[in-house]
């Protein structure tokens, strides 16, 4: 008896028929079968035989592998990723059944994926709400009109990973590589010349598209990595708009500014994907063991651009280590925050002062490593380093920030930063909190605010060696 499983491809056959503009009777006539048999095939009430696949391929001049695949592997990987959510932990989903659903019912699978993304987005919105009551008893949501919070929610709900943009950017990168340079591609494809001009001529702009003169103007004070990124940004606006707009339509934004900031973030994502194409970059990160500096040299990008790209490598079926990313200034203000590793960032305020990202300013341009342990015992590995923006000429303003990149403990051994390093161990992790208001480590001398729900003791007769003394009740 044959061990081969029957092949059902009803939804794909129906989609093919509609794409060809055929009725069931038309297709039946073309394939020399009955219209009722076409209907049974489309409803998955009959399996496809090898003869039927050959008829389809010959009649409509289509590739059999393309017909049989039809995105099934990607759908399966995406559905499996969704079903790993703890919400489904008590439901048994055999891997074979998941593949059957994804391949046989792509429409249902797409609906499931959209619903889950919407659910994640609403979860994050709920987490951001401030439940402090108004005078009238209603609650306040300070983020409702906050465009930055809206953009962060959109990215976080999708784990900062957009396969359609990655695929389109990879195709565009192949086209660019067929020319001598990105500048040559812009000239040949769009008739645009690139000019590098002094900052005073640019009048505060880093990049500007002059459609009248058919020129892209770039501030000549930018370093090479920043200039390449600006050209990649402009090229993304010119050639990847459709993919970006398609992803943007999935979101719901309370303000126009929130939508614009999200579009800007997606275009930056596309530019990074153009400079660091997914397949090549995903292969390189494994070969170089996630060495950010070495990867930056290989792809001609900056340390920050490379670290940022590492947070996006969650394409279904081609996942790499999931990272979180944060960028802070010397005052502790968070200017960028991305989470693909399940790190519980504080929704409001700064991060824990014991985290090395805040000490990185003491050793500029050096990578600082650190193990972190949260109050619940969960551990993460983090690297931090300062990065600079601006400058490029004497007297030009330069901004220094620190960025941190980290992953969960189970992935840390894949990173070059933990290899052959007996001096750093998860057993010596620094105990940190998410934010002082949520951290109940009462003996922390770096605390800036008491935790919610703890009674502060009077210091009339005894002064604690920590900023606050607490009762044990």
TrEMBL record:
Protein name according to UniProt: DUF2083 domain-containing protein
Bias-annotated ranges (Polar residues): 463-473
Transmembrane regions: none
Species of the source: Parasphingorhabdus cellanae
Regions annotated as coiled coil: none
Region of interest: Disordered: 448-473
One protein family per Pfam: ScfRs
Keyword presence, Transcription regulation: yes
Keywords: DNA-binding, Transcription, Transcription regulation
Family: Belongs to the short-chain fatty acyl-CoA assimilation regulator (ScfR) family.
PROSITE patterns (alphabetical): HTH_CROC1
Domain HTH cro/C1-type intervals: 13-67
